[in-house]
Amino acid sequence: MIKKTSITEKRKRPLDKLAYFGIFLFAFLVFAMVVLFVVYILYNGIPGLTWEFLTTAPNPIEQTIGILPSIINTGYMILLAILFAVPVGVGGAIYLCEYAKNKRLIRIIEFTTETLSGIPSIIFGVFGYVFFCTLLNLKVSLLSGALTLTIIVLPTIVRTTGEALKAVPNSYREAAQGIGATKWYMIHTVLLPSASRGIITSIILAIGRIVGESAALILVSGGSAMYMPRGNFFEQIMGSGATLSVELYRYAYSRGENGIGFSIAVVLLAISVLLNLLVKLINKKLGTQKAES
Fold this sequence. Notes:
- By secondary structure, the chain is an all-alpha fold.
- The protein has a domain at about 65-245: MetI-like (MetI-like fold).
- Helices cover about 75% and strands about 0% of the residues.
- The protein has helices spanning about 15-45, 50-55, 70-100, 105-120, 120-135, 140-165, 170-180, 185-195, 195-210, 215-220, 235, 245-255, 260-290.
- The longest helix is centred in the last third of the chain and has 35 residues, at about 260-290.
- The protein starts with 13 loop residues before the first helix and ends with a helix.
């Protein structure tokens, strides 16, 4: 008796089984490498994590190591770069998606944005040193570093925000305009709230890039953080200082103190995990609010 096979019935051929096996194998290898990477960093870095290490400044006389100045500098860098990049990036994405009519201009801007995202960080560092530090006379400072990071993260914010705006259904736009809403009123009351999850994701991704950047900042913001911040905020941002990633490079590569480098890497890893958890929490909260409304 011949067994009848439905058209919708799944039949696994030998080649399909081989493909499934390859997919699961590669997925397992990626997962294993990530676990090995994290475990190796934690194993070598956790022993050096002490309260003194996290809350003091380096003291060459007493030969103690502390990373609190670099943590504060990293916070300054995140604050300034996001303050500069978010309005420009989100505004640029709104213009490309909602106002720009010239398709050729749109293609040029999108091509330029994609090109910027692929340029090595050290090129941004050279540009930042020549333009911000020398031409604008901002010198090697946290402000110069923040302005350089603004250029680095702009492509991420523009691209991600643009995709979020494009994902909003056209029916939302048509409904708002149908009741007589102006273009800008429709954008800031309908489009931006609907695309808020994507916009927040772009900001978190930009912060992750800021935290991990080192090559460009060595040139434009300084290569060490030896002293605790003193004075007001504006005095601090006009002075030089190293972030956590730059300090990691300085200890691990320049001075060969790998143990300290691994300890700083644990701090950076913890920041990355917190950023990912923050993205998930915000997206979940926004999804809940949207479902309730």
